[in-house]
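User: I'm writing a short report section on ligand binding and want a predicted complex to refer to. Could you take this sequence and S-adenosylmethionine and write out the structure as tokens? A short remark afterwards would be nice.
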Amino acid sequence: MASDIDRAGVEKAYGRWAPVYDLVFGKVFDQGRQSTIEVADRIGGRILDVGVGTGLSLSDYSRSTRLCGVDISEPMLRKAQQRVRLLKLTNVELLAVMDAKNLAFADGCFDAVVAQYVITAVPDPEGTLDEFLRVLKPGGELILVNHIGAESGPRRLFELAFAPFARRLGWRPEFPWARLVNWAAKHGGVSLAERRPMPPMGHFSLIRYRKT
Ligand SMILES: C[S@@+](CC[C@H](N)C(=O)[O-])C[C@H]1O[C@@H](n2cnc3c(N)ncnc32)[C@H](O)[C@@H]1O
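Assistant: Sure. The structure tokens for the complex follow:
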């Protein structure tokens, strides 16, 4: 099995991605980003965007939302800060370097938590999801978009073979849906509201959980 992701490795990987991230991942991931934002805007209020990266999504939220963005990578976040200044995004309350698993926010202080292409890039996905729920208000939504590994067939074989290389890029391509199912069952305070296939090729999913 491929060695797992660690925090230092992720910071290093995204430090390298930062200068070219928007060029490589701007367009290809845009539909997924937009779909999470549509849901978050419907909820409104105070929204936390975890793993906000270079801040590609920030200008797409409704200006009536109050946004906080956090990321583990300082070089990625610096780009987000430049974007906020340039576009005068006055609804962005805070951008801060923070580990998704140890959020410096009080319990129940967000109406929605959004994580776009993040949950399979963190060392402890289940512990991180627990932390997202901690900062959500009861009735609030956790809105994820992510690559989910195939359950069988050639895509599964490819993802398993690619996994050792992907770790160096900060990814877990084989991440199975079953891990989210097991996490939700174990947590007990959350219900799945939606899973919707997303491009490219439906290999990604928009996933919504409601805090009960
Ligand atoms: C694939 S990028 C997605 C960035 C952005 N959400 C987007 O849609 O373009 C993953 C982001 O998650 C961040 N990240 C990875 N592990 C993290 C952690 N433990 N805590 C906070 N951010 C993390 C990375 O630094 C990176 O910016």
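A remark for your report: The two ends are 35 Å apart (CA to CA). The chain has a mean pLDDT of 95.
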